[in-house]
Amino acid sequence: MIKIKNLTKTYQNKKTKTTVLNNINLEIEDGDIFGIIGMSGAGKSTLIRCMNLLEKPTSGSVHIDGINITNLDRKSLSKVRKNIGMIFQGFNLLMQKTVEKNIAFGLEIIRIKDFVPENMKINEYKSLSYLEKRKVKKVETKRKVSELLKIIDLEDKAKAYPSMLSGGQRQRVAIARALATNPSVLLCDEATSALDSMTTKSILTLLKKINEETKVTIVIITHEMNVVKEICNKVAVIDQSEIIEQGSAPDVFKNH
Ligand code: ADP
Ligand code: ADP
């Protein structure tokens, strides 16, 4: 569960102070597909970046699974971030790496001693030698990448480079990469805004499938009403730095 309490974000320039988020309160429950909708400049991007502390709130707090992450030190925060996947409008893939290497990246950067295998008890892993651990991590990474390639239906593109893929395929890879560490939350920052409507639909269908199969909580910010209408069960509307409405999707859309 993600809880945002009395969150305010202001930017102080030399002369002026701009309030980008004003006293935001939000509760996102486990398994939700939560849409945050609003016009350009409303504060959506800043809000979603506060959820993993890419942006630090000026006041107020962000709680994930009961932990207040607002003032964590760097090390604890990086641990929490492994539990939060993020995808962007611009995909942010590594262009020099193949699809499978891109997906594996999030796992490869985890140190051997911090790795948590999915198919082995953690104590059993801890009791292995360094070289055995390295082997387990390698095998698990390979298995995870195959599993994700299947989910995103791009098994035939494992060895391709991002430049050879369409926008929709790139976003699929970005989704797989974000899911590699089994996060409990997936943050999507205008994830479909660069895509045409057909491709948008297929990405939304994929996100919905992933939500149903893995129960990952999904937060989507977008300026596109059709995106939230299509898949979100909960919606918050943000306007000029404030949440002006939030609730179940049918309730919120009744008024629009
Ligand atoms: P949205 O994602 O809804 O388009 P943003 O969160 O990107 O909105 O931006 C909200 C407002 O905050 C905008 O008016 C933007 O200009 C302002 N803003 C964003 N980042 C900064 C910054 N670093 N300094 C000053 N103002 C900023
Ligand atoms: P915008 O409001 O236009 O999205 P931002 O300042 O939020 O501007 O970010 C600019 C771009 O940088 C984003 O589109 C995002 O793709 C990328 N970006 C920001 N933070 C990260 C990050 N931690 N890792 C990868 N890419 C990032």
UniProtKB/TrEMBL annotation:
Pfam families: ABC_tran. The keyword Ribosomal protein does not apply. One of its GO terms (biological process) is amino acid transport. Keywords: Amino-acid transport, ATP-binding, Cell membrane, Membrane, Nucleotide-binding, Translocase, Transport. Gene3D superfamilies: P-loop containing nucleotide triphosphate hydrolases. One of its GO terms (molecular function) is ATP binding. GO terms for cellular component: plasma membrane. Residues 2-256 form the ABC transporter domain. Belongs to the ABC transporter superfamily. This is ABC transporter domain-containing protein. It comes from Anaeromicropila herbilytica.
